[in-house]
Design a protein that fits this description.
The chain is mainly beta. It contains two helices and 17 strands.
């Protein structure tokens, strides 16, 4: 936990969710002394989940123990989809870890291929500082290697923001000012992948 959170009188509750049958899932909850849930943070926190091996395979997956380092990933549930978290796998300690800025339901799952599609979440998004849908993230298949470049345009074709090395837009333009509410067009390029779509910014 970040120091400013760790210094508070907080309680962490971690609950196994056995209803998830295609992975190993846990719900993470953090509450302050007054019982208020702390769900989002300015600084990232590290989530780590241990996986178990039964008969040579990772529990609730088709991944063999020898494939764990390449085929497992950390995901979080947004209420509709399981979304990937940039993660690392330690096969010695059998843990999958990732840095996140929120707490919810997380799971160790077999990596899913997005093919040549781009998954945009949350869309629409509402960057108003309330910790809910404040950013929009662009997910693409890890098979495409290289630095992703995402360009955000107004419908008029005017360039609003260029994201390089980051697949998250916070709703600000290149000068750091809040972009206007409305429909925007994105273009994502990484490796041979080149995709264009739309995202809605609501205020």
């Amino acid at each position: 936990l970040p120091k400013d959170i760790a210094d508070l009188n907080v309680t962490m509750k971690i609950t196994r969710d056995n209803s998830i049958t295609d992975g190993i899932a846990y719900k993470f909850e953090l509450k302050d002394i007054a019982g208020n849930k702390l769900t989002s943070f300015n600084q990232p926190i590290t989530i780590s989940i241990n996986y178990t091996v039964v008969n040579g395979r990772i529990t609730n997956t088709s991944v063999s123990e020898s494939e764990a380092g390449n085929k497992l990933g950390l995901y979080w549930w947004d209420g509709v989809n399981w979304l990937p978290v940039t993660s690392s796998i330690n096969t010695s300690t059998k843990t999958v870890s990732g840095a996140v800025k929120h707490l919810s339901l997380f799971a160790v799952k077999e990596k899913a291929s997005l093919g040549d599609k781009v998954l945009v979440v949350s869309n629409p998004f509402t960057p108003n500082g309330d910790g809910i849908n404040d950013t929009v993230s662009f997910y693409y298949d890890s098979a495409y290697v290289g630095t992703a470049v995402i360009k955000i345009y107004k419908r008029t074709g005017k360039l609003v923001r260029t994201l390089e090395g980051s697949a998250v837009w916070d709703g600000k333009d290149e000068s750091g000012e809040n972009a206007e509410a409305g429909l925007y067009i994105y273009n994502l390029q990484v490796g041979i992948l080149n995709r264009t779509g739309t995202v809605v910014l609501a205020r």
